[in-house]
Amino acid sequence: xxxxxxxxxxxxxxxxxxxxxxxxxxxxxxxxxxxxxxxxxxxxxxxxxxxxxxxxxxxxxxxxxxxxxxxxxxxxxxxxxxxxxxxxxxxxxxxxxxxxxxxxxxxxxxxxxxxxxxxxxxxxxxxxxxxxxxxxxxxxxxxxxxxxxxxxxxxxxxxxxxxxxxxxxxxxxxxxxxxxxxxxxxxxxxxxxxxxxxxxxxxxxxxxxxxxxxxxxxxxxxxxxxxxxxxxxxxxxxxxxxxxxxxxxxxxxxxxxxxxxxxxxxxxxxxxxxxxxxxxxxxxxxxxxx
Length: 290
Prior knowledge:
Blueprint: H1 9-17, H2 35-41, E1 46-55, E2 58-67, H3 68-81, H4 92-97, H5 108-125, E3 128-135, H6 136-142, H7 145-148, H8 153-171, E4 180-185, H9 191-205, E5 211-217, H10 223-239, H11 245-253, E6 256-259, H12 263-289
Parallel strand pairs: 1-4, 3-6, 4-5
Antiparallel strand pairs: 1-2, 2-3
Helix pairs in contact: 3-5, 5-10, 5-11, 6-12, 8-9
């Protein structure tokens, strides 16, 4: 409708808000679109928050993917759900095992209720999740030592998460705008490796340019990274065969793409990687000789 249409005082105010002059009222049109329609049918930019977890023989990397609006909401709801004694920080392992954690003197049922609440917040605010977990012993047996210096178990986990992200986006009916940026919980000793794996994974899996940049943040000050910490802790438990109603609830509430590579997967990857490296060396030699 035009701003000067009959009975459209609200539209005229809307026109003034957008600095449309009265002389343009018959030349400019305003279109009202239901916000419910937008949220259901027009996808928004996405970003992901990831964390890793080690325990005994298992390593896992997992993360939530969602919109910027969802992350803002999660920051608010998550902080509100934490008690003052938490000082704004949640760490999955400490929550269950540290005698200094804010929940150390809670009953088991109270702890479960708290985890349920945080898990629901994550599900409500994020769009979906991806995760990878496997046995480090199986990885080390399948990958030669000289190659493990370049591709660590953590890097292999993260690379597989990237491939799941690409597959998840390709499977959606409505594709969200790109690029997707990734935030990883900061571990100073792993930054260079994670950055290199991210760039290598982009080149290998991301043919359409959906991935943007990778950054590192402090879990203590970023609620989405705390939500990723909860997720990866539950995935690690599931890989170890431990029952968890929280993990089952997460799967029911949101799509979660999880893979548990085995020794056969590692051996196949090692053979394919060797082939790619050999091809790259031959290509480089050919380019230099010409």
